[in-house]
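Format notes (please read before filing issues)

Several people have asked whether sequences and structure tokens are stored in separate files. They are not. Every record keeps both together, in the order shown below: the sequence lines, then the token lines. Line labels are part of the format and must not be stripped during preprocessing.
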Amino acid sequence: MLEHCLSPRIIFAYRDFVAVPKSRQEQPDPMLKTTIAGSLPKPEWLAEPKKLWPAWRGAGAELERAKRDATLLWLKEQEDAGIDIVTDGEQSRQHFVHGFLEFVDGIDFSRKVKMGIRNNRYDAMVPVVTSELRLKGRVHQTEARLLKSHTSKRRKITLPGPMTIVDTIADEHYGDKVKLAMAFAALLNQEARALEKDGVDVIQFDEPAFNVYMDDVKRWGIDALHRAIQGLKCTTCVHICYGYGIQANVDWKKTLGVEWRQYEEIFPALAKSKLDQVSLECIHSHVPVELLRLLKGKDVLVGVIDVASDQIETPAEVADTIRSALKYVPAKHFYACTNCGMAPMDREVAVAKLRALAAGAALARKSLGKRPKKQGRTTISGRKRKRGRKA
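Then the structure lines:
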């Protein structure tokens, strides 16, 4: 990696003058494309490492430059690894929800209150909605324009979903979760439309709360997402998972039993939704892989990288997970992804996992091209029988 030899700040100051993205028409469009759920670890010169809510190292213009440098560093790492659809790594956000809330008027950050998150899975100090919500201005314009200027790959920006925002903030103004969610959805739509104009190809809404409040997902959660994507022509995605690899989430997963069937309740509704893609957790989870068939017609971003473990997946392990899921998702709708964001991870571990993701997808892609022509039907026992002959 370049930064082993030079300061990343020097590398990307140089890159600013020489980076001219190649035409997209020159880029291949492989089957089994790769992408990530969104976040990547912040370099230690930007923020506290291995923290979900890290403190920034700098302030003012210095901090803004550091955020920009970190964004470009992770863009280079994704390109070097071979990731097909790249992100900003959420380097400019202290937290995936509050990074958006900081740009919203009507929220009082000066008096945070303690609140249970994800149905009281863990407590957090959250700001309070005190008046009508309005965007102060653009939220992720800088990141979107950096991506456009420095890569010819397809670009993705993530935003928090309305239901997850509502579950991560206290309310003293709207007095109703659905009204509050729709107010945030309107603001998300405002930023999403602007991101589309900035050249963003995929806009993803992160909804870990969808795995907690399944009835509300069907009652109003998907409707709120529909409001958030209203008028968009770019690809839209919703990310659903069992959370970051933090201890509170690890402990919660242990209570879910041998099979995690939360997806079963909401996939049929998502299959009927207006969203183009669904991103979900798969590898090392107890999600029955056959549930993926419930998303018929959607692009499915299948988590083949575990973000709750520092163990690096081998390309063969990634390829095996892909092949297993391909039994239920057509290859043309299949994207290899991470289970969730990697923000709290060690930076070098995250880099290695990016490489494993791309290498595993390439291995699976290669095996797809070598599939033999069917000679007959295969029974459960694995024996083949000739066509036209009764058993």
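For reference, the curators noted about this record: The chain has one domain: 2-368. The chain has a mean pLDDT of 86.
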